[in-house]
């Protein structure tokens, strides 16, 4: 069913307040949700001609504020490394930790044929020249020692080395009406700075809407879905969340479909099983057909009519799509009740909710069935098992990996959905690392989060390669904010606090990988771009709008539609021309792919 998921609550994850704010702010209270769901059947009717390609966009949200100062790290020696060590204190990743040998097979990495415990390195060598990503107010040798990723991000390093992943430095929410500097930060009017800069809930909404200076109404992903809905001909919404309610996918006409991370679809009670063993398989003759409740005179090729007349003879359901079984008769009765028309608009709206739940269950069930093995496992499991060796985590496949596997299965089963555009939302919580950020093992603290994230994304890449869809996928990371460079304690219980601009990454076949984009921050605390005080809270050098605009263009938005998706974009950047993108060091996408 189309369910709203709530995971085990912690301080960094959505709570009841988040749910109410995100749903009501979008004019989607409970009754509105029911009425909006009824529109799902109509979405596919506006399919645009000639749109035969497929693209999937995946928002990988790091809920709680990822400490990206410990994701992309100055290495070896040099001014940036010195600033990093001086500022990080007990949170510093030592240079020796970038080159290591997995302790045993449990911590090993998939090398294409087996789990390897050979020595690895998380150091990276970007293709673009150092001058392209060093801060303009520092000397050319600021990053002379090079860069490395967190040791737990070795799987991401493999993507970086294969030109499939890039980092964008010091990205954050900005208003754009006035340049923010350390000198003017405290004197600028409130309207010139994002409100509630260091608040989890506010910054999550601002990242997912890219509109800090306006009341929330839609997410920028939801806006794209509304604009490009005509590219899809299926009944399933363009937006699918595997991680519950979020602001990113809130839309007017394309409300997100919510799934659980297990990748299972629950049919109506008593109507599962049969042959084939998919939802409603025991009740239907052709499970690939979906019901249409409008009793049309001309029936589309992918639909069946619950109101079809009975035949005479031993099998009265012979001319229908229902099996002449108890399950077939039961489902026919239910769907005929759904097809009834009511004089009351409220009754019709109420009736629309189960209708669309039935349609989406069938569609998603058929899409998932394409990667279903006879033993109920998934053909995608192998790629995730490869990157999550036995005994590394319990359960073996953590929830975020299950979320990514479900996304992979839906992309593999895209033909059943008849959609050429899909927007997915996945989420890993727990990044609010105020205490014990570095406990020293691969399965606890910040290390564990980076480890799960990196292995999940690399396994997803392998799954896409296996079905030839990597060039059609783009995944980007997002988070509330990064965290202070300085620790809040000087012992092992130390962590980091809420900050501002941080590093994000993008990966996919269209990404111009093995590059560092944006501007790497000046890591001088109590100076440079430390916005206030001496904690190392970086003023962003690149706005979220600039990054998201390029992603929206790749996904299919015309240049003239960017202003609808990201109204503040031109405050930061004139256009998306090659010359402008090069001048901003943001030319990270090959738009021809």
UniProtKB/TrEMBL annotation:
Q: Per its UniProt entry, which superkingdom is the organism in? A: Bacteria
List the Pfam families: DUF1501 (PF07394)
User: PANTHER family this protein is in?
Assistant: BLL7424 PROTEIN (PTHR43737), DUF1501 DOMAIN-CONTAINING PROTEIN (PTHR43737:SF1)
This protein is called what?
Tat pathway signal protein
Organism, by scientific name, is Brevifollis gellanilyticus
